[in-house]
Design goal:
This protein has about 260 residues and is of the alpha+beta class. Among the domains are: about 45-145, no CATH class; about 175-250, no CATH class. It is built from 7 helices and 9 strands. It has helices at about 45-55, 130-140, 155-160, 175-190, 205-220, 225-230, 240-245, and strands spanning about 10-15, 20, 65-75, 85-90, 100-105, 110-120, 145-155, 165, 250-255. The strands form 2 sheets. The protein has a 7-stranded mixed β-sheet with strand order 3-4-5-6-7-9-8. A two-stranded antiparallel ribbon has the order 1-2. Helix 4 packs antiparallel against helix 5 (about 205-220). The chain is globular. Residues about 10-15 and about 25-45 have low confidence and may be disordered.
Length: about 260
């Protein structure tokens, strides 16, 4: 990763030889010339900024004041490419008990990969993930990163749908869309009959048709229906239908461009 900033937070552009405000104008993958320390005394290396992030991101975060015990280090041999930097660690409660884990990697093309964020169920929904990720994204932008990628699975399949979009450049996106569409069509049928549920609840005909139409659009790659629309899906009698669909064991490739709401 070849990122250089001055004290004003501007990036050094190897295209123009100047500091610029917009990271899109800085060639982050180009080799950066050695800067004169007399002229650029406030210069910070990417390694310095990344290593310092672990301390800055210690927390506490969320309503239960969870803290983050993480470390930043460079991965091993990448076969000739610049090895990615990793930030990973554990999440602890007020008593110091481990209640979660996380892992992110930072690539020289200016992208971040969210590989893992797991939190014990009793601590979910209390603001930790929102505060933690907001603070982390501010750090990413400060260092010149522009895009986050993830494979949203488990709890993350629902949680990341609130702020990520389908990564349509992923080779797995069509299989993921098909899986989500199948789950939507299955839930459109309502609760299945079983010995433990002999009077299963069903969706109203108009709601059933609405869910099926959305499933068709998701599977076709229509951008009029986003992954957030799926997460927010609610019908009469099933107020968290989207949550149930996305937390049914499926996964999808996500992308978030930093600076977007």
């Amino acid at each position: 990763m070849a990122t250089r900033r001055n004290s004003a937070g501007q990036l050094y552009s190897t295209r123009t030889g100047q500091f610029v405000d917009d990271p899109r104008h800085a060639a982050l993958r180009d080799p950066v010339p050695v800067l004169d320390p007399a002229a650029f005394g406030d210069y910070q290396t990417p390694e310095t900024m990344l290593r310092g992030m672990a301390e800055r991101m210690a927390g506490p975060f969320g309503g239960t004041a969870l803290t983050v015990d993480g470390e930043v280090y460079q991965a091993g041999d990448a076969g000739g490419d610049e090895p990615p930097w990793l930030w990973k660690g554990v999440i602890r409660d007020a008593a110091g008990n481990q209640v979660g884990t996380f892992e992110r990697s930072f690539l020289e093309d200016g992208t971040v990969c969210h590989a893992d964020l797991h939190l014990a169920e009793e601590h979910q929904g209390k603001g930790f993930a929102t505060e933690f990720n907001r603070a982390a994204e501010a750090e990413y932008e400060q260092m010149g990163f522009h895009t986050i990628y993830t494979w949203a699975v488990g709890d993350g399949a629902y949680a990341w749908a609130k702020s990520f979009e389908f990564n349509d450049s992923s080779p797995n996106v069509w299989a993921a869309r098909e899986t989500i569409a199948r789950a939507m069509r299955r839930e459109a049928e309502g609760e299945p009959f079983s010995i433990n549920n002999m009077n299963p609840r069903k969706l109203a005909p108009e709601d059933k048709e609405r869910v099926r139409r959305m499933a068709d659009l998701v599977e076709a790659g229509n951008h009029d229906v986003t992954i957030r629309d799926v997460a927010d899906l609610a019908v009469d009698g099933f107020p968290e239908l989207g949550r149930k669909i996305l937390k049914s064991g499926l996964g999808w490739p996500g992308r978030r461009r930093l600076g977007e709401v």
